[in-house]
Amino acid sequence: MSLISISEASELTAKSIPTIYRHIKDGELSQTDNKIDVTELLRLFGGFRPSADYHRENDLLRRSNADLKQDKEKLYQINDLLRRSNADLKQDKEKLYRIIASQQKWPPELAVPLKPTEVRKPNKIVIDESLTQRLIRKLFFK
User: Fold this and answer.
1) Domain containing 132: what range?
2) What is this structure's pTM?
3) In terms of domains, do 133 and 103 share one?
4) HEC-encoded secondary structure of 65-108
């Protein structure tokens, strides 16, 4: 007497899990601790040959999974490139602030000092769209 789980029974018989549960509910299959005896499956379904649809769906899911893994990897690469680009933009911003500070009026006592709250910062960072588009095109549309 060999017991298998309901999901394993579903795979072996190429029947859905709800179908297996329906047969249990109707009394056509018996279960013990959420396990089904293999002989019960053989008696009810006759054999363990998954249908062609089951194999096609399984292959489709495997390919989809592989595609999703590749897309995930590409998104990680884009994220890394954007982070590096963001760091470069921050360095450029600091350089510009230093240049502006160096061009203030001399002597310093004549210049109007800015309070820390009055430091003018841009409302939003504008990323060069052509750079972003090139990155996405390179990663997704080789």
Assistant:
1) 52-140
2) 0.36
3) yes
4) HHHHHHHHHHHHHHHHHHHHHHHHHHHHHHHHHHHHHHCCCCCC
